[in-house]
Design goal:
Layout: E1 4-11, E2 17-23, E3 26-32, E4 40-43, E5 48-51, E6 53-58, E7 80-86, H1 94-100, E8 107-113, H2 133-142, E9 147-154, H3 156-159, H4 165-177, E10 181-185, H5 192-195, E11 204-206, H6 225-233, E12 236-238, H7 248-256, H8 270-274, H9 281-290, H10 295-300, H11 304-310, E13 326-332, E14 336-339, E15 345-348, E16 351-359, E17 362-365
Parallel strand pairs: 1-4, 6-7, 7-8, 8-9, 9-10, 10-11, 11-12
Antiparallel strand pairs: 1-2, 2-3, 5-13, 13-16, 14-15, 16-17
Length: 366
């Protein structure tokens, strides 16, 4: 609902209690707890508030199977105010994705799949004829408000005999469009040591904590030199949990070797939302609390860090005058069994639970 309303007694990550007054879709006041005035008061004592959660890797084109879902099912209903579709659509269908955002409450951006067919089939880079450079350029020029980067899924089942060549073409398109790449990594060939050196500053490695043989860590859990070099170049690391791309053991190794947490994303779609192992953004965030990251670091990974990558700092802050995009959540001291993409189960003592959002000034309970 819009108008003037107050989120009363919410607490920041540092435990400071405040009131947030929202009026005409914008943050009108950040006041001492109990002092905010509005036509409607929503008391959220003992509930945390952050800027709206951002999920940098989802699949929000419901027509495609298995990688598809409804925008708001994986957005505001999960406590997420902004989602970024990670290459569901190529040039053939990106206009349809752009049109769908008009009907959704959740903010939507997208990576454009360099294959014109997108995820209509899941070997979309196995035929180089499906990479139409002119169509990519036309789509980017027409949908600059939607497209934030280009997506290339560089793993064996996607590229088949094309090897690393689709990534070389993606690199050229990145330079022509001035857009960064998001590169999905997984089973080889191509070998991970062929893939990572082609990535540049602000490009995104998604699935960096996957437990497949062709991953970024050696048998002892030590990060490969190509990963260290990529981090030094400014390549961005994104979780992209998904059905098959998050391993507790690899995540523990990354933390042990001080590989910084950049963004936590879900790679959520209908199947792994309903049947796991993803379920929700809250569930994925709870896994990183279990791993020993602070609440501050976990929430930063879906707020300030993600907003900074998107070059939309207003999405990652709570500031008077900004459009109100906020997430309300709790941290419950309730045991929960968490499962990774390899079936490894862990029992955590705390879990994060989304309670509601304010998205573009509209309050919605989860």
């Amino acid at each position: 609902m819009k108008g003037r309303f107050v989120l009363r007694n919410v607490k920041r990550i540092n435990k400071e209690e405040i009131d947030i007054v929202v009026e005409d879709g914008k943050i009108a006041e950040v006041a001492k707890a109990g002092s905010g005035r509005g036509q409607q008061i929503f008391d959220y004592s003992d509930v945390y508030v952050s800027s709206g959660w951002i999920d940098l890797h989802v699949h929000a084109f419901p027509e495609f199977d298995p990688y598809g879902d409804e925008i708001d099912e994986i957005g505001v209903k999960q406590g997420v105010t902004t989602i970024v579709d990670a290459g569901s659509c190529g040039a053939d269908r990106i206009a349809d994705l752009a049109a769908s955002r008009e009907q959704a409450k959740t903010n939507l951006f997208a990576f454009l799949n360099i294959s014109r067919i997108g995820l209509k089939r899941i070997d979309e880079l196995s035929n180089m004829d499906w990479i139409d450079k002119d169509k990519v350029l036309q789509a980017v020029n027409k949908h600059r408000d939607l497209i934030v980067g280009l997506k290339a899924r560089i793993s064996k089942s996607v590229v088949r005999d094309s090897g690393v060549e689709p990534l070389r073409v993606a690199r050229e398109l990145s330079h022509e469009t001035s857009l960064p790449l998001m590169v999905h990594i997984g089973s080889g060939p191509p070998n991970i040591e062929e893939v990572i050196p082609l990535l540049e500053k602000r490009d995104v490695i998604t699935h960096y904590l996957n437990g497949k043989e062709n991953n970024l860590f050696d048998d002892e859990g030590k990060p490969l030199q190509v990963l260290i070099d990529a981090i030094e170049r400014g390549v961005h690391l994104d979780v992209g949990h998904g059905n098959a791309s998050f391993s507790f053991k690899v995540a523990e190794a990354a933390k042990r070797y001080h590989i910084d947490l950049n963004t936590i994303s879900t790679d959520i779609y209908r199947k792994n939302r309903l049947n796991g192992p993803v379920y929700s953004m809250s569930n994925v965030l709870s896994k990183f609390l279990y791993l020993g990251y602070s609440l501050e670091d976990v929430i930063a990974a879906v707020t300030t860090n993600a907003a900074s990558w998107l070059e939309k700092p207003e999405l990652g802050r709570i500031q008077i005058g900004d459009t109100a995009n906020l997430t309300l959540f709790t941290v419950q001291n309730d045991p929960i069994t968490l499962i990774d993409s390899e079936g490894d189960k862990r029992v955590a003592e705390r879990r994060i639970e989304a309670k509601g959002v304010v998205v573009n000034g509209t309050f919605i309970e989860c």
